[in-house]
């Protein structure tokens, strides 16, 4: 069961004082167990094998759908948030991977760099949540000369992109994040967070993840580094709940490693955040990292001693430990058999009698010798 708070809280710090199961800070709160983010398929070392039909978008750009999206397509000057991998066609040379860097790229359609013109055409023909393979001719890529700095692309190289359109903002003037004021960026991020919460309530976890990721994209590391005082507090009051909500989605979708990463980001800003400690502990417990999970739960208990959910998880771990001990005990008993019973000590009566008899015979022999003498 999940409970969602509609009204945003003024600061993220208040989250730690609330019960894990309570309503707080515009965060999605997970009460039951089972704890996604759209996952890039296969291992990413080579372009994925796609069997869908080839769609011609332009005489130099073609598309194959890997996963269908939803909603409308972005219009010109829309600010799009994308993840992509890029290869030189016909080779295993991968020259970019934003999934690996864990930072989506912002692309304003119609204002993209010259070498990303083909990518822009492909993205403009995608829907939110869609993942596709784009085949781009070298003329709409890095051109006749290629690139010998970063990224390293040979001359006249046709390109293959695996692209996911996380989402987009249809702003007429095509205003990029770098052109926004601090207030505008925080407002845009908060709007995405609220949309994500709506998707979460409908159990559309992947769509919710896309909105949270877009919200976080407005508040990248370069932006947060420049903020101090009240502006930093305002940004964190939106950013941290988005990371925690992403963790809740990831746990629901059983993407436990990624849930741990999202919680760790929050804890790097606020080491006493009870929700982050609790959800990270849940994810670790699901992965069998019992001791590490216990550490997180104990820290959460330290900062929120009365929280019943934390107490419940610690009890569950204790019960698991006890069950594991009993199982191991039975296993070893089966391997080595029952413990042998100690043998009773042999009676010393016969030994004593024998010694007495020998002594007696010796005494009698001595008596006969004396008589003979």
UniProtKB/TrEMBL annotation:
This is peptidylprolyl isomerase. TPR repeats lie at residues 274-307. Residues 77-169 form the PPIase FKBP-type domain. Its EC number is 5.2.1.8. Residues 1-24 are annotated as: Disordered. InterPro entries: AIP/AIPL1/TTC9, PPIase_dom_sf, PPIase_FKBP_dom, TPR-like_helical_dom_sf, TPR_rpt. The keyword tRNA processing does not apply. PROSITE patterns: FKBP_PPIASE, TPR. It catalyses: [protein]-peptidylproline (omega=180) = [protein]-peptidylproline (omega=0). The keyword Ligase does not apply. GO terms for molecular function: peptidyl-prolyl cis-trans isomerase activity. Transmembrane segments: none annotated. Keywords: Isomerase, Repeat, Rotamase, TPR repeat.
């Amino acid at each position: 069961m999940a409970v969602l708070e509609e009204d945003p809280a003024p600061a993220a710090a208040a989250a730690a004082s609330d019960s894990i199961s309570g309503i707080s800070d515009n965060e999605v709160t997970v009460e039951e167990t089972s704890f996604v983010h759209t996952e890039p398929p296969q291992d990413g070392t080579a372009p994925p094998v796609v069997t869908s039909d080839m769609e011609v978008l332009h005489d130099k750009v073609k598309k194959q759908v890997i996963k269908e999206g939803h909603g409308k397509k972005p219009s010109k000057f829309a600010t799009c948030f994308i993840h992509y991998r890029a290869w030189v066609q016909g080779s295993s040379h991968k020259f970019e991977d934003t999934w690996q860097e864990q930072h989506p790229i912002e692309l304003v359609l119609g204002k993209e760099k010259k070498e990303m013109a083909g990518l822009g055409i492909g993205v403009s023909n995608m829907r939110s949540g869609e993942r596709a393979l784009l085949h781009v001719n070298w003329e709409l890529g890095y051109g006749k000369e290629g690139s010998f700095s970063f990224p390293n692309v040979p001359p006249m190289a046709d390109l293959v992109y695996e692209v996911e359109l996380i989402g987009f903002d249809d702003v007429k003037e095509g205003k990029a994040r770098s052109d926004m004021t601090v207030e505008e960026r925080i407002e845009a991020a908060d709007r995405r967070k609220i949309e994500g919460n709506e998707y979460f309530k409908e159990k559309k976890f992947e769509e919710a993840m896309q909105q949270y990721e877009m919200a976080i994209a407005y508040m990248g590391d370069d932006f947060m580094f420049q903020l101090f005082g009240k502006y930093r507090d305002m940004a964190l009051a939106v950013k941290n709940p988005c990371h925690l909500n992403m963790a809740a989605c990831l746990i629901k979708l059983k993407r436990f490693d990624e849930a741990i990463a999202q919680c760790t980001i929050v804890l790097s800003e606020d080491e006493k955040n009870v929700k982050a400690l609790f959800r990270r502990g849940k994810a670790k417990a699901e992965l069998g990292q019992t001791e590490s999970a216990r550490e997180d739960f104990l820290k959460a208990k330290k900062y929120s001693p009365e929280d019943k959910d934390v107490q419940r998880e610690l009890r569950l771990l204790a019960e698991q430990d006890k069950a594991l001990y009993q199982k191991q005990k039975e296993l070893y008993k089966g391997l080595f058999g029952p413990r042998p019973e100690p043998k009773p000590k042999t009676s010393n009566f016969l030994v004593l009698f024998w010694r007495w008899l020998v002594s007696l015979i010796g005494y009698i022999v001595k008596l006969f010798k004396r008589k003979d003498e």
